[in-house]
Write a structure and sequence with these properties.
By secondary structure, this protein is of the alpha+beta class. β1 and β2 form a beta hairpin. The protein has helices at residues 16-25, 50-54, 83-92, 95-113, 117-158; strands at 2-6, 9-14, 33-36, 43-44. A four-stranded antiparallel beta sheet has the order 2-1-3-4.
Length: 164
């Protein structure tokens, strides 16, 4: 049979299973003085085998501990940075618009790592937008260049440029 101290007064006797329940409930802590027959003096419960056999301490809910959780956020998948598209547009289509796209694409991962998903999505959308505009500009310039060559070759074939 065990005795334990509470508010300066001895409580008990209680069975070992009862004192283990009190430990699980947090009534008896590691610092609580306990005693049983055969012990020379009262000792903290941590110096006995009670704490080890009681199991882990009870888990307090976060709300009971005064912690106000943030609203749950659902994982919506990774944010595409469009970096490959931005680099390809820069190399093959339109250098100025491709560089702007690369700058926005480089910002995406930093925003994601900082936990700023909204900013990451905005930077991703901007990177895609500027890469798309660069692609369109490159295609337009390419088509105009081909038309220019056709016209020049057409005039050369007709002999219209021989007089120059």
């Amino acid at each position: 049979m065990w005795y334990y101290e509470m508010d300066g007064a001895a409580q008990g006797p209680v069975s070992e299973s009862k004192i283990l329940d009190l430990i699980d409930q947090g009534v008896v802590t590691r610092q609580t003085l306990v005693w049983q027959d055969g012990m020379a003096d009262w000792v903290p419960a941590a110096q006995t085998d009670l704490i080890a056999s009681a199991g882990p301490p009870p888990v307090r809910s976060q709300q009971a501990a005064g912690w106000d959780p943030e609203p749950e956020q659902t994982y919506a998948g990774p944010v595409d940075n469009h970096l490959v598209k931005a680099i390809l547009v820069t190399i093959f289509c339109c250098l100025p618009l491709g560089i702007v796209s690369i700058v926005y694409a480089a910002q995406v991962n930093g925003h994601v790592q900082a936990g700023r998903r909204a900013e990451a999505l905005e930077a991703s959308a901007n990177a895609s937008k500027w890469a798309n505009w660069g692609l369109i500009a490159g295609l337009v310039i390419g088509v105009l260049y081909i038309l220019y060559l056709v016209v020049i070759i057409g005039f050369a074939g007709m002999g219209a440029l021989d007089s120059y």
